[in-house]
Amino acid sequence: MKMFARAAFAAALLAAAPLAATVPAAAQGTLKFGALYPFSGTLALLGDESFRGFELAVEERNAAGGINGQKIEFIKGDAVDPNQAVGEARRLTSVDKVSAIFGTYSSSLSLAATQVTELANIPYFELGAISDPITERGFKYVFRTNPTARDFANRMVDAVIEAIAPALNTKPGDLKIGIIHEDSLYGQTVSGYQKTRAKEKGLNVVEVLPYSAKSVDLTPVILRLKSAGADVVLQTSYQNDTVLFFRQMKDQGYKPKAVMGAGGGYSTRDTMQAVGAENMEGALDVDFTQYNTNPKAAPGITEFSAKYKAKYGIDPRSGHSLANYMGARVFFDAIASAKTTDADKVRAAVMKVDIPVGQTATGWGAKFSEQGQNTRAVPFLMQWQGGNLVTVFPTDAAVAKMKTGIGTN
User: Fold this and answer.
1) Are 176 and 233 in contact (CB under 8 A)?
2) Helix, strand, or coil here: 353?
3) In sequence order, what are the beta bridge partners of 232?
4) SS3 for 206?
């Protein structure tokens, strides 16, 4: 981690900072925040989708009078890799003088940028990156509302035991599990926890295969899975590699009994449309709350969807927008309670947040550990059915029953 931080800072010092992009705001009486996301590059789709949730939360708050009478102004930072995340965080904090930064979707970007904000004593509100170390480094001013990689991994492995094995009428230990993952921090972290959890639960993992998210051919990975006879595949992936996996899985005639993703590429309609609904049918996804969820378990989800469509002209593309909207609302309330943007007072206000599970639009609650992690955020189990990603677990949030098999015949 120390080597990573030194390298990131060194690169940032050499890099020129891109121009800022801002939303209109009054010259006086505003609170200036940074919005740091990957707006370009390979992560741009979900980076932009995440930002849209934050943007809607800002507009909603400003329409209601802002925070303690001050309107919110945000300045965008585009981070396509960790080095640029450092550079943009430095610009936002030292040049644009933001009071806090919100983001970020990608774990590697968040880990890099938070090094900068912590040294600057600026709060960093993570609304979507899941790598556990983000809130495990002893930082005072880093806070996160969404679930972690460990939460995702445990839910995925437990779903094999509690949902997939019973549906297949077999013992969990008799299933052969293949774990595949893109090899950045996101994939490494989730897969690491999956291996640990699977071993604890006595599951039979026959392959663990990393690959680059920029791969143009996953045939070797698929052939290894096929040769090992993997019945269940757990994949941690972004969009492009998810699409590639499903297309080449079909080309190779490989049809496991179940395929489950850890959010990322599995969560978007763009992925389903690229793969084809008939090929994505039955794919499982442990993920942030998606939009086909019982609103009784996620009050406000229907209203958010309507606001999203009214502004952007389409239905939400992924639950990442919803997660960022929920998280931003929680932190705006905390800042309002602090009545200042002083980092220590904001931290004290965040530590007092106490929202029960089932009282936000994601269905999560909010209660923060001393490390800044929301302890009441849990991923749900979804499945692609008939071209829609529907919640199948937990029961109170479900709108459909889980099916078996991948693809339509």
Assistant:
1) no
2) coil
3) 177, 258
4) strand
For residue 346, with 0-12 CB atoms within 10 Å meaning exposed, 13-18 middle and 19 or more buried, which class applies?
A: buried
Compute the chain's Rg from CA coordinates: 21
**Any residues with CB less than 8 A from the CB of 184 and at least 6 apart, and which?**
107, 108, 213
- Dump pLDDT digits (tens) for 203-232: 999 999 999 988 999 999 999 999 999 999
Please tell me the distance from the alpha carbon of residue 222 to that of residue 245, in angstroms, as a whole number.
8
**DSSP state at residue 104:** -
- Residue in 139, 174, 121, 148 with CA at minimum distance from that of residue 263: 148
Provide the sign of the torsion angle of the four alpha carbons 147, 148, 149, 154, taken in this order. negative
- Cα distance between residue 77 and residue 21, in whole Å: 7
347, 141 Cβ separation under 8 angstroms = yes
Q: Coil, strand, or helix at residue 140?
A: coil
Q: Which two tokens stand for residue 367?
A: 């209660």
pTM: 0.84
Q: Which of 303, 391, 379 is nearest to 56 (CA)?
A: 303
Angstrom distance (rounded) from CA 363 to CA 100: 25
Describe the crossing of helices 107-119 and 2-14 by its angle, rounded to 10 degrees.
80
Predicted confidence (pLDDT) per residue in 6-27, tens digit: 444 344 433 433 444 444 433 3
Task: Specify the pLDDT at position 267.
Answer: 86
Q: If you search the block for the tokens 């921090």, which residue do you land on? A: 185
Across 336-342, average pLDDT: 97
Rounded Cα–Cα distance for residues 81 and 245 (Å): 24
Residue 330 parent element (H or E): helix 319-338
Task: Tell me which residue has tokens 């390298």.
Answer: 7
Q: What is the pLDDT of residues 27-38, one digit of tens each?
A: 348 999 999 999
What local confidence, expressed as pLDDT, does residue 29 receive? 84
**How far apart are the C-alpha atoms of 369 and 351, rounded to whole Å?**
7
Q: Specify whether the backbone of 212 is left (phi greater than 0), alpha (psi in -120 to 50) or beta.
A: beta
- Note the pLDDT of residue 409: 53
Is residue 120 within 8 Å of 94, Cβ to Cβ?
yes
- Asked whether 175 and 168 are in contact (CB, 8 A), the reply is yes
Residue from 111, 106, 73 nearest 92 by CA: 73
314 has a pLDDT exceeding 90: yes
Residue type, 89: A
